[in-house]
């Protein structure tokens, strides 16, 4: 592990000293207690997009998530497969952060310094866990 001093850290594994990074400012513009709630979807396995969608991954819709109002179970439909899952609270909440760079112009035109700030976008306190194998929505019909 890393052991910290005032201005540098020592790694026992690497047996070397390393300078500490300057602190990064984290701010919450949504107000205390008003951050949007997010959730993580945890799947067992891999989702592989078709090659023609490789360039569109950030906005790719992979399925439909539904929760019947009377139950605490969730269904996630991906193509012809349906997964059933449940909501699980996380042991420790996670923050969803957005990196914001502010460039500051010094007195000389050549040197520019930038400060990095992290803005809180949301908080994650729960995950939706799908731990079973998917159920096929289409079955083959056999003629007798």
From TrEMBL:
<dbReference type="InterPro" id="IPR018607">
    <property type="entry name" value="Ctf8"/>
</dbReference>
<dbReference type="GO" id="GO:0031390">
    <property type="term" value="C:Ctf18 RFC-like complex"/>
</dbReference>
<dbReference type="Pfam" id="PF09696">
    <property type="entry name" value="Ctf8"/>
</dbReference>
<dbReference type="GO" id="GO:0007064">
    <property type="term" value="P:mitotic sister chromatid cohesion"/>
</dbReference>
<protein>
    <recommendedName>
        <fullName>Chromosome transmission fidelity protein 8</fullName>
    </recommendedName>
</protein>
